[in-house]
Design goal:
The protein is of the alpha+beta class. Helix content is about 30%, strand content about 20%. The longest helix is centred in the last third of the chain and has 18 residues, at about 170-185. It is globular.
Length: about 250
Amino acid sequence: MLVESELDDGFVARHAELARGYGGGGDPEDPALVQAMQMVLHIPKQDPPPRSALLAAAATAAVALCMDSRVGPGGEWEQRYLTWKRSRIRKVARRARGAQWLAANEVDGITVQVDGAQARALVPGPVGAIDQRIRRLQIGGTDLEADDPGPVDPELPVLWVDSELGMTVGKAAAQVGHASMLLAGALSVEQAFRWAGHGYRCSVREAGPRWPELARLVRAGSATAVRDAGFTEVAPGSMTVIAVPPGVAG
């Protein structure tokens, strides 16, 4: 994962693109042209990773790709990224193990490891043109139990997942990926640059009974919420994840 060493024009431009928001238009008439970011979760059969660490890796990979120099002005991934970002945002999480995981790492994207858990965010594109190494990966079928990862790092953002929704690990991975992107765009460019210095790491936790308190932070403008479009698992408009920046009590 590449992290900027200085706050240059390229970083400012990439942050500005995130801060601009996302296209909200309808889907193209041809379903094969629907744009999506594929996310690959490394879930080996033996010794699978903790759920919280895997979700943190997925969230970090998503925002790291969106802030990578290759999606910025003149970058090799720029047009693929912008076509996706300026359409209806979708992410699809798939699981991989063994040779599948090694093959997924050959496809354009960024891999992040958090406490032994690994996830890869791939450069977005039309669903009708997904690389065959990715298309064959299973979307559902494997879940991970909630874990107790301990206290959060006060220097990192916290992504709080609404555990009452009962999202699968794949659905939750897509949602925390949305959350990290939204948070990066909501931060000032200086705050985003400080986050880049931490490799865009974040903590992911189950909110449980704290959800109403966190929702108040959203209403106060101190935190950022993901509201799902309702394509899978949850009802349209459901608030799935709340991203709280460092230094904000939540």
